Amino acid sequence: MRKFISVEGGEGAGKSTLIRFLRKRLEEKGLEVVTTREPGGSFLGEEIRELLLHVRRDEPVVAKAELFLFLAARAQHVETLIRPSLEAGKVVITDRFSDSTLAYQSTARGLTLGEVRHLCELVEDHITPSLTFFLDVDPKIGVRRARKRSLKAEVGYDRLEEESLQFHERVRDGFLKQLENSPERIFRIDTAKPIPEVQERAGEILDQWLAKS
Length: 213
Ligand code: Z5A
Fold this sequence. Notes:
Blueprint: E1 4-9, H1 15-28, E2 33-37, H2 43-54, H3 63-87, E3 91-95, H4 98-108, H5 113-124, E4 131-136, H6 139-152, H7 165-181, E5 186-190, H8 195-212
Parallel strand pairs: 1-3, 1-4, 2-3, 4-5
Ligand Z5A is lined by residues 9, 11-17, 37-39, 70, 96, 100-101, 104-105, 145-146, 149, 160-161, 191, 193-195, 198.
C-alpha cells in the first residue's frame, strides 16, 4: 500500500504542529518522509497559494475561480511531488488535500458536492490518502489560535482567515460529513486537548495504520 497521509481540519486546528510530530515518529522507525502542504508543494503551487491567500484587489474571488485554482495547484503537486515520492517508497504527509476542497469550496462556499468530488477525483488520478487525520477544534478556538500566531509573526490575516465565524463553522460541518462517509480512512482527533494528548492519540492511530500497510 502507498503510504500517503493527509492532515485536515479548520484554521489553527494544529495541523503543522502534528505534522512535525508524525514526521519525527516515522523517521525514528527508519522511514523516509516527505512533508508538504496545499496549496503549495511545487513552484507553481506556491505561486497559486500566494494568489489565493493574498489577492489584495477589491474584486472578490468567485467560488468557482477559487475552486479551480486550488485544483490546479493540486494537479501540479500530485504529478511533480506526491506521485514520484510515493513511487520511490517514501511516506508523504500533506497538510490538506481533497477533503479541504470538499469542506471549504463545497460545504462552506456552496458549490455542488457531486461536482466538486468528481473534479477532485480527476485531479487526484488515483493518488488518494490511505490515512487522514481530521483535527477537530471549535472554530472559535482555532481562529483565535491562528490569528494570534499571525499577529506574532507580523504577517496579517490571509483572505480565508478573514472569513466569518459562520464560514468556519460550515467548514467544520463539511469535515464532519466526510468523516461520516469515510470512517475507515478518516480519524478525528479533538485538538482542544493539550498537545501531548493529541500526539499520543495520533501516535496510536499511526502505528495501527503502519502495522496494516
Ligand atoms: N483551502 C481551501 O479552501 N481549499 C483547499 O482545497 C485547500 C485549502 C487545500 C490554507 O491556509 C487555506 O486554504 C486554508 C484552507 C484553504 N484556509 N483557511 N482557513 P494555510 O495553510 O495557511 O492555513 P491553515 O491550513 O488553516 O493552517 P494554520 O492556520 O497554519 O493552522 P494549523 O497548521 O492547523 O495550526 P498550527 O500552526 O499547528 O497551530 C496553530 C497555533 O496553535 C500554534 O501556535 C500552535 O502552537 C497552537 N496549537 C497547536 N495545537 C494545539 C493544541 N492542541 N493546544 C493548544 N495550542 C495548540
